[in-house]
Amino acid sequence: MSFYVGEALVGEGNEVAHIDLLIGDKTGPVGAAFANALADQKMGHSNLLAVLEPNLAVKPSTVMITKVTIKGAKQAVQMFGPAQFAVAKAVADCVELGIIPKDQCEKLCIVCGVFIHWEAASDKKIYEYNYEATKLSIIRAMKNEPGADEMLAKKATAKHPFSGLD
After folding, report:
1. The domain containing residue 76 runs over which residues?
2. pLDDT mean across residues, the chain
């Protein structure tokens, strides 16, 4: 497998976290996406490394990409603060728990799409929801979940929380 894909939605309200991520070899397509994300910054879409604290980036190296345009200092600080710490902690905890093999940390990289709602207010919820969503995304990615059988079994009764069809 050249890369793994994970997704998770956790929380509620304006602090809801929706993570989409790729995990793969630095020499493959995820590595190329990782390098492009860091090298191709755009107004309102400042991609950043996941760090536990300044000068302590996580392994596997993880780049966070914004899934919405960052509009203003408050939203930027939320991305570069509680969301960044949450993603970093989740990656580090997944290595510690063996979900991501420690001996693969220098070989792999992660591209992590992060959603921060423009009206999010609680840094605590942003942290908690993004931590849980990132960890769940990594677990799902590494287990190739959901599988095709699960997806097909649930498709007829699936309800998307933001579809407006309820």
Report:
1. 3-151
2. 94
Q: Which of 18, 45, 117, 160 is catalytic?
A: 18
| C-beta of residue 84 within 8 angstroms of C-beta of residue 125 | no
Tokens of 62: 């993880």
| 117 phi, psi to nearest 5 deg | -65, 140
Instruction: Assess whether 160 carries a catalytic annotation.
Output: no
Tokens linked to 14:
């304006």
Answering whether pTM is above 0.90, one says yes
- Residue 57's pLDDT band (boundaries 50, 70, 90)? very high
* 159 belongs to a structural domain: no
In a domain, 103, yes or no: yes
CB crowding 29-52: b at 16 or more within 10 Å, else e: ebbebbeebeeeeeeeeebbbbbe
Of 18, 158, 39, 138, nearest to 83 by C-alpha is 18
